[in-house]
Amino acid sequence: MRARRLGAKLRRLREDAGVKMDAAARRIDGDKPKISRIENGRMSIRRLELEALLELYGVTDERTVNALTTMLRQTRRKGWWHQYSQDLDPDFEERLDLEDDVVRILAFQPLLVPGLLQTADYARAVIRSAERSASEEEVDKWVSMRMTRQDILSRDTPPQLVCVLDEAVLHRQIGSPATLAGQLKRLREVNSPPELSVQIVPFGQGWHAGLDGGFSIYSYPDPLHLDVVTVDYLDGGLYLEEDSSVERYRRAFDQVRASALSSRQSMSLISRLARDLEKQV
Q: pLDDT tens, position by position, for the chain (281 residues)?
């Protein structure tokens, strides 16, 4: 995914500079298919080639050059999830790669609490339901991975996380009543706007812009100005990087968030539902 993000940024820089693909190819002694593969993240680029292209595109800002050079170096780095790679779907590996150096995540989920905010018990219940043939050892490994994934939220400089949930998430019986109650308490405990905020779109809102499904918008540090959208579906996720697509989902998120209860109202609803569940335990 880092290679795709680097390629997407190089494509934008080339287009902004008005440089044709064949001119870029000549600069690095390649051909148009090579430039296409680099820009689509399907082929690695050497540092000297990167520097040559940036010079051709007129990119002289030191911060931008350093950021792209760092990104190139990171494309060769193995993430913490490498130890689990034999058990991971490639789409999910890309998701973990996206999260690793993000500075802001805007997330909407209509069905489940997102993995970054799940308790171990809730995660275990989700995994057991989705992977019914998995052994207890496999389930333990996946739960451990999900908990490790959450470490990005306790870094010295964690990403900002704005999470909007449909109220249905709070009612869906995942695991036992105690499991769901524990998960709702977790949402209340982590809510700390603006660094980490959880808001709920109530049933009474009716239609809203997120009813087509869950999605997340990942933003990366200046000066790269890179955003990536992930759209969830049954077999994985769709990754969108074009400015027009990102902007469309950004507007959708703004509309969904405008439909949601305030943070204080959301916490009040979550607390009430948690108390109701505790009475069933």
A: 678 888 888 998 999 999 999 999 999 999 999 999 999 888 889 999 999 999 999 999 888 898 888 888 877 777 777 777 777 777 778 788 888 889 999 999 999 999 999 999 999 999 999 888 989 999 999 999 999 999 999 999 999 999 999 999 999 999 999 999 999 999 999 999 999 999 999 999 988 888 889 999 999 877 667 888 999 876 667 888 888 999 999 999 999 999 999 999 999 999 999 999 998 87
> CA-CA distances (angstroms) from residue 170 to 164, 183, 186?
12, 9, 12
Q: 137 in a domain, yes or no? A: no
- What strands lie across the sheet with 196-201, from one edge to the other? 196-201, 160-166, 104-109, 215-219, 227-233, 236-240
Domain total of the chain: 2
Three-class SS state of 215 = strand
Q: Cα separations (Å) of 95 from 89, 91, 232? A: 10, 6, 11
Structure tokens given for 74: 């990171």
pTM for the whole thing?
Answer: 0.82
For residue 131, being part of any structural domain is answered with no
Q: Verify that 69 and 92 share a domain, yes or no.
A: no
Indicate whether 108 and 161 sit together in one domain: yes
Paired sense of beta strands 160-166 and 104-109, if any: parallel
Residue showing tokens 């989902």 = 249
Q: Domain of 272: which CATH number?
A: 3.30.870.10
Q: What is the span of the domain harbouring residue 104?
A: 87-117+146-278
Judge if 158 and 265 occupy the same domain.
yes
